[in-house]
Amino acid sequence: MSITASMFKLLMLLSGFKFWLGLAFKHPPQRLFTHWPKLLSSRWPVVWHELEGRKIATLDPHGKCAGHVIYLHGGGYALGFLPMFIRFARRLVSEHNLRVSLLDYPLAPKAGVDEVQAFVAAAYANLRHRYPDDRFSLCGDSAGGALALVLLQQLRDIGEDMPAKTVLISPWVDADMQRDFDPWCRQEVVLQQAALVAAIDQYRRHLPVEHPRISPINGGLQGLGEVALVAGGGELFYPDLCRLKRELTASDGTSLLWFEGTGLWHDWLYFPLPEARVTRRDIGRWLAS
């Protein structure tokens, strides 16, 4: 772990970051996330689509498009776009000439699993129709990573066109949060176990936590194509991500590119760390290749 990362970790511990994020998961400040379009810079053209009353923003590169990334943000299914998600998307556009579409999917507790996943599937189909010549990839972090993996499995199961590549950043692939996560629970500086229990209960509605639409690690991992998986060695999900790594590697028709931040926390890729800078570059190049 770099000195910069160690300082960030200490700062998050001292500021109670995990407590405040956990509070937001339990009582999501929905109004705060209605202003996310203002976070988009005017440096790149933005094409706005509307689907089922919700927004899709597509950021276009200045040069030749190297691919089209559909981005699904994290936030425990309850929080919307944060500035760090927008910065990541802008880097993919500016540094790698990728077209990036940001999905403003509906959030819990107002929306549950059926509404959220139906919107994501409809948005994928809508964008493929609007941009028929683009080479599509998926990218999602945390809850958004789970949504990306669920969509990938659904497309495989019904025989629809699959994305060329998929990036899963600290994905929430096993929603059973009643398990013993020691010592990762103590190491983690972002996620609070009790808050995740509340968040998944708001989202899953009628489905049990082990259902593949809630815990996509149970949905079969064969035939998913090229997948990049980003994990933090100090994050709460680390044991599940190691299991996901093993099972993806052993699955026919699926290839894995693994990135691990030694000792780092959940969603470390979005922070201004030397480790994150190198990994973001490598992922961007991989998506654009």
Q: How would you briefly describe this protein structure?
A:
The protein is of the alpha/beta class and 289 residues long.
Describe this protein's structure.
By secondary structure, the chain is α/β, with parallel strands linked by helices. The protein has one domain: Rossmann fold (3-Layer(aba) Sandwich). Helix content is 39%, strand content 17%. An eight-stranded mixed sheet has the order 1-2-4-3-5-6-7-8, sandwiched between helices. The longest helix is centred in the middle third of the chain and has 18 residues.
Keywords:
289 residues, alpha/beta, Rossmann fold, eight-stranded mixed β-sheet, 9 helices
* Biggest β-sheet strands, sense, barrel: 8 strands, mixed
Give the fraction of residues assigned to helices: 25-40%
Q: What distance separates the N and C termini?
A: 29 Å
Our Rg estimate from Cα atoms comes to 18 Å
SS-derived structural category: alpha/beta
Query: What is the CATH level 1 assignment?
Result: Alpha Beta
Instruction: Estimate the mean pLDDT confidence.
Output: 93
CATH topology: Rossmann fold
How much strand?
Answer: 15-25%
Main sheet: strand order? 1-2-4-3-5-6-7-8
Task: Note the topology.
Elements lengths: L2 H13 L1 H10 L19 E6 L2 E6 L8 E5 L10 H14 L2 E5 L9 H18 L5 E6 L1 H16 L6 E5 L14 H4 L5 H12 L20 E8 L5 H12 L4 E8 L12 H15 L1
Parallel strand pairs: 3-4, 3-5, 5-6, 6-7, 7-8
Antiparallel strand pairs: 1-2, 2-4
